[in-house]
Amino acid sequence: MIRHDFTLLGSLPDEIIPIVGCSPQLQPYYEKWMRENRTFIYWDRGYLRRVFATWLPRGIEGGYYRWHINAFQMTEIRDVPDDRWKALGLEKELRPWRKGGRKIVIADTLPDYWNVRGLPEDWSVHMARYLKTRTDRPIVVRHKESGLSLQNELKDAHCLVAHGSIAAVEAVIMGTPVFVDKESAASLVGRVGWDDIENPVYPERQPWLNSLAYCQWNEPELCNGTLFRMLS
Fold first, then answer.
1. Most buried one in 108, 135, 202, 222, CB count within 10 A?
2. Is residue 188 classed as helix, strand or coil in its secondary structure?
3. Buried residues in 103-127 as b, exposed as e (16+ CB within 10 A)
């Protein structure tokens, strides 16, 4: 087992699959592995009933973590049942799509995220400047640790803009359309890119919610083998 010494990852044989998280030191490895199509497993806090930094209800019994093969987030909507979604007890959190809002909210995130993806930490500031060339709507940059709830921030929102922040997933559940990067799980029910900021989309969300619930597991499911059976 390799822990804490990131330099040893470069010498792993191909038959060993690294299980890695959101550490800035891993950025060159992610870039190399993706370029070479090397298999790795990425884990991070979950989408729903997560353990930290959420404005939806938090986790029960330690909360949920997402696990993905060769990706940071969910990349497709699968044909899966709704049992895991229903078991989360979040149906009442799902709001109808909101239309007619005025402002644009940009969800900023913490430095580790930007560093892992090799992006500038002031990405959100640059995005705000860019959007001002595309629209006359008021633009709010929302910091990750804002004391204002996401629900309140989105009350008069035309949309939420993010790179890959899970705030975009939460916004979709709260009924706010999103514009995100292609690597975001919310891209499957939002728009990829930011050029067409005046034209959000409002798709059916239930298949997406079912898939999200099938991409995250809690600690008991890790220990009893459920996670790895379903992941494979």
1. 108
2. helix
3. ebbbbbbeeebbbbbeeeeebbeeb
**Number of Cβ within a 10 Å radius of residue 90:** 16
Residue 162 carries which DSSP code? Answer: -
Whether the pLDDT of residue 6 is over 90: the answer is no
Q: Write 145-152 long-range contacts (CB < 8 A, 24+).
A: 149/55, 150/55, 150/174, 151/55
Cα separation, 16 vs 19, in Å, equals 9
The radius of gyration of the chain's CA atoms, rounded to the nearest angstrom, is: 18
pLDDT for residue 144 is more than 90: no
CATH number of the 92-208 domain = 3.40.50
Contacts of 159 (CB under 8 A, 6+ apart): 101, 104, 105, 176, 177, 178, 179, 197, 200
pLDDT at 230 over 70: yes
Question: Residue 5: CB partners within 8 Å, gap ≥ 6?
Answer: none
Q: Are 202 and 97 contacting, i.e. CB atoms less than 8 angstroms apart?
A: yes
Q: What is the mean pLDDT of residues 192-216?
A: 98
Query: Could you state, in order of their start, the residue ranges of all structural domains in the chain?
Result: 6-78+210-231, 92-208
